[in-house]
Each structure stands twice: as C-alpha cells, then as structure tokens.
Design a protein that fits this description.
Elements lengths: L5 E5 L4 H14 L2 E8 L6 H10 L4 E6 L1 H14 L16 H15 L3 E3 L8 H12 L4 E3 L12 H10 L13 E4 L4 E4 L29 E8 L2 E5 L2 E2 L2 H14 L4 E7 L5 E7 L1 H17 L2 H20 L5 H13 L5 E8 L2 E8 L7 H4 L12 H18 L4
Parallel strand pairs: 1-2, 1-4, 2-3, 4-5
Antiparallel strand pairs: 6-7, 7-12, 8-9, 8-13, 9-10, 11-12, 13-14
C-alpha cells in the first residue's frame, strides 16, 4: 500500500467513518476523498458532505443512488421472492452492492489509488463491499481499517478520544444503545442491548412503524398494480420506483406492518440478532406473490421458489455481481414476463393480508375449478386413471414387501 496516495472512502458521517477519514490521512499520508452514496438514509447528505470537508477530505462527493437502488436492486430482489432464512427481506444486504458500485465509479472518475470502508472484521458488510469492488475492478486496492495492522482504535472509548484529540464532532448518544442502518427499503437495528436475544426491543427504537398495538382500529385497503413482476402503481396512480416505495412505507408504517426480529447466520460464521422494519417491502412481497398465483405456471413457480433461498443467500453473502447470480436472475426475469395484474391488500394492526387479486391474462379459470355445474370443462372421470398411475409405484413397493 506504499503507492497509495489517493483514497476514496465510503463515508456516512457516523462515528467510524468520521474517525477513519482522519486516520487514513495520518496512517497513509494520503489524500482522502469522501464518497457518500444516497440510498435514502432519511438524512440530509449536505451536512455529511460539509463535515467531511471540515475533517480534511480533499473532496466530498455525493451520489444520488435512490432511483437506481429501488429500480435495479430492490425490485429484482422482490421479483425473485428472495427472503433470507425465511423472514429477512435483505434491506441492508441489497444496498451494499450499489453503494460499492458507485464507489468504484468515483475511484475511476478521480483517478484514486484505493478504496476504503468502515465495516468491521466481524460483519457481512466487509464481504459485500469488497466482493463488489473486486468484481468490478479486479486489481483494486482496498483498505479496511478494522483489519489493518496499523489500526489501534479497537474500542468505542479510544475512537471517541481520537475524535476529541482531532476536534472531530461525532454522534455519540447513550439514549440509543444500539446501532442502526437505514435506506429506502428498511431500517436495521443491532448491537448494544439487542445482543441479548432474550431482550425485547424497546418500543421507542422503531422509526418507520407504529406499534401494532397502537395502530388504527380501522383497516386500510390498498391496491398495487404490477407489470411483468414490477410494481408500477398504487391505488391506480402510476408512480416512479422511489415514490411508490415511499408511499407504501408510509402506509405500512402507519399500520405497524413489517417488523421482524430474528437471529440470523452471518456469512463469516457467527449468529447475530437483528431487528428490522420493512413496511413497504412487506406489502410489495405479499402483493407480488398474489399476482403470481394467478399468472405464473405451476412448474415455473416451483422452480423459481426452489431458487429463491439460494438467490437470497447470494445477496446476503455479497455475490450480487457473480456469474451464478446473473444466471439465476435470468430465469427469474423470464418467469416474470406473465406477472401482470393487481393485488388488493388489507393492512390492519401489523397484518398484511391479501384479500383480492385480478389479472387480464390469468390461468385461473372459474369454469374448470367451480364446485357448481362446469358445462363439461372438466371430466372428473379422468382423475381415475391419473390417480392409479401415480399410485402404481406405491402399490409395487407394498407388493414387494418393501413397506
């Protein structure tokens, strides 16, 4: 790393990256460019940009990634029905590849020698950032201070003391004894008081949703239109991706939708407790599945559903820009060509229930499935041979004394 003279740091303005910005200048005697990727953190990026310059950054570059994030990362993840370990909608995982992708863009634009990030050596983010960087820029130099032999600021107290020494303002609050990460899809909470998986999350921690116990006593109905698996309208109003997700976040949050509390398996091998709020995403997943039930062939759905956990694992582990992910998503995209229609959902006290679905080109035929007169659309006697053929191997097994 002796040749490193200019570094692009993925910067948020939080405790870690605020200190890392100054530390990189000292440890590497290098110019540091602060890069801020806006994926909908819910905060103004301008204060972070100014703070970076005041801390010594030679440049502070903000990239507005919100529309691309929702359109090209969130929606494809939903079309794949990708859910990690049954419940996690991958809010943090899916944001990392686009942030790292734009960081490589800044590296190229500025002619920098290396990129740096503030992820620790225990988490998943270090893997997600670096796999993306290597996939897009194979020979890139990456500086990960938490794994750097020069790094000695291995505690919160040491970091705060370093900040005070260098007059770096850092957000320190004992009122929130946990860490959080937010984007347009969700907000996550981990660490601190949440490290004991027996502790119930404090109610004042949540930011995107009201408690289901305090949600309105009247249910709210919402309709979502899809075209080839992509949501395009809410209650008949067409919306761009960011507006659509923000609209559903507000609706879902008002009714306590989308809270998840789980102990998950990190890629590095340890278990970790995370609490998530994903109101809009929860609604979208339910609505999307409802339209699929009308429009997707049974065997195609089965194959897609077999792939979904693997796709979720690849996203969680940081392999968005990998050949296997591209191949699996090609199947997903093909499967979504017929998924056009509308789902109606009822939001009520933390529950998101599908109560209706419709599609112009639907595989659901009332003439065939009706319990009433079917006018000859289905010959029930056909089922006799169907059942006997499927029972043939079972009968043979019994007759052979194998069961």
């Amino acid at each position: 790393m002796s040749s490193v003279k200019k570094i692009v740091l993925a910067y948020s303005g939080g405790l870690d990256t605020s200190i890392i910005l100054k530390w990189l200048q000292e440890a590497y005697n290098a110019e540091v460019i602060a890069y801020i990727g806006d994926v909908g953190q819910g905060e103004e990026t301008e204060p972070a940009r100014v703070k970076a310059l005041n801390t010594g950054a030679s440049q502070a570059i903000v990239k507005d990634l919100r529309e691309e994030f929702v359109r090209d990362f969130v929606f494809p993840t939903m079309r794949a029905n990708a859910v990690y370990e049954g419940v996690y909608l991958l809010g943090t995982s899916v944001a990392r590849p686009i942030i790292a992708k734009a960081q490589i863009d800044v590296l190229r634009e500025t002619g920098a020698d290396a990129v740096a990030h503030g992820a620790t050596g225990k988490g998943n983010d270090q893997v997600r950032f670096e796999l993306t960087c290597f996939a897009l820029e194979p020979n890139v130099k990456i500086i990960a201070p938490w794994r750097d032999p020069k790094w000695t600021l291995d505690s919160r107290e040491k970091m705060i003391a370093y900040a005070e020494k260098h007059n770096i303002p850092v957000p320190v609050s004992k009122a929130k004894p946990y860490s959080s990460d937010r984007n347009l899809l969700h907000i996550s909470f981990e660490g601190g008081i949440l490290e004991d998986p027996w502790n119930e999350p404090p109610e004042d921690m949540f930011q995107l949703s009201v408690s289901p116990l305090k949600a309105p006593d009247t249910p709210h109905y919402v309709e979502i239109d899809f075209e080839e698996g992509t949501p395009v309208a809410v209650d008949g109003k067409r919306m761009a991706p960011v507006e659509l997700l923000e609209t559903l976040n507000a609706l879902g949050g008002a009714h306590g939708i989308g809270r998840v509390d789980l102990v998950e398996n990190r890629f590095v091998g340890m278990k970790s407790r995370g609490v998530y709020e994903t109101p809009g995403g929860t609604i979208l997943y339910a609505a999307h599945r409802a339209v699929e039930t009308l429009t997707m062939d049974r065997e195609v759905m089965l194959q897609r559903d077999i792939l979904s956990p693997k796709i979720a694992q690849l996203i969680y582990n940081g392999f968005w820009f990998s050949p296997e992910f591209e191949a699996l998503m090609a199947f997903v995209n093909k499967s979504q060509e017929t998924v056009t229609g509308t789902a109606r959902l009822r939001l009520y006290k933390g529950n998101c229930d599908v109560v209706g679905r419709r599609a112009e080109k639907t595989l659901y035929d009332p003439k065939i499935c009706t319990f009433e007169e079917d006018e000859g659309a289905y010959d029930q006697t056909d089922a006799t041979g169907f059942i006997r053929l499927n029972a043939l191997r079972l009968r043979a097994r019994k007759n052979a004394g194998l069961f």
